UniProtKB/TrEMBL annotation:
InterPro entries: ISAs1_transpos (IPR047647), Transposase_11-like (IPR051698), YbfD_N (IPR032806). Keywords: Membrane, Transmembrane, Transmembrane helix. The keyword Transmembrane applies. This is ISAs1 family transposase. The chain crosses the membrane at residues 12-35. Residues 1-82 form the H repeat-associated protein N-terminal domain.
Length: 168
C-alpha cells in the first residue's frame, strides 16, 4: 500500500500504525478513541512486535493516517490477506452474499455512508466492498462489486451470488 504521509516528520512505520488499527478493530474497537485506548493498553513487548520503538502513536496520529489511506486499496489488501489465512481447500460450492448497509454514526459531507459488501459465507471474509454514491442506490454499485469479486476469486465459475430482489 502506498504511504499517504509526507516523508518529512514520519515517526512511526506505516505498516505498524495500520497493523495497530486492524488489530484494534478486530478486537472490537469501533472508534478512533477506542483504537488509541487499545494501543495504550498493550504491553511494551507487544509494541516491539508491532514495530514500535520506545513510544506508540497517539489518537491524532492514528486518525490523521487512517483518514488519508485509500479505503479501496486497504479493503483489497485486507481481503487478500484474510483469504490467504483460511483453509487452502476450496469449498464445493462458494456462496457469496451481497447486502448493502448504511454505517451507523458515519457521515460524510454529502450524506450517510452506504456500503455494498460481498461476503463469502464459506470462509467468513468480505471479499470486496464498494461505497454507494450519495444520491444513488445499490443497483449501479452492484456490477463493479461483482467485477472485484470475480477478480479476487479468479473468475465467477462456481460462485453462487445471493442478493436482494432489487438486483434481479
Amino acid at each position: 500500500m502506498p504511504d499517504p504521509r509526507d516523508p518529512r516528520g514520519i515517526r512511526y512505520p506505516f505498516a505498524s500504525v495500520l497493523a495497530v488499527a486492524v488489530c484494534a478493530v478486530m478486537a472490537g474497537a469501533a472508534m478512533f478513541a477506542a483504537i488509541a485506548d487499545w494501543v495504550d493498553d498493550l504491553a511494551a513487548p507487544a509494541w516491539g512486535r508491532l514495530g514500535f520503538t520506545g513510544r506508540v502513536p497517539v489518537l491524532t496520529t492514528v486518525w490523521r493516517l487512517l483518514v488519508r489511506v485509500d479505503a479501496e486499496t486497504l479493503t483489497a489488501v485486507l481481503a487478500d490477506w484474510l483469504c490467504s489465512r483460511v483453509s487452502a481447500l476450496p469449498p464445493v460450492r462458494r456462496v457469496t452474499a451481497v447486502d448493502g448497509k448504511v454505517l451507523r454514526g458515519a457521515v460524510l459531507p454529502e450524506g450517510r455512508v452506504h456500503l455494498l459488501p460481498a461476503y463469502d459465507t464459506s470462509i467468513g471474509v468480505v471479499l470486496a466492498q464498494v461505497q454507494v454514491a450519495a444520491k444513488s442506490n445499490e443497483i449501479p454499485a452492484f456490477a463493479p462489486l461483482l467485477e472485484q469479486v470475480a477478480a479476487r476469486l479468479g473468475g465467477p465459475a462456481g460462485v453462487v451470488i445471493v442478493a436482494d430482489a432489487l438486483h434481479t
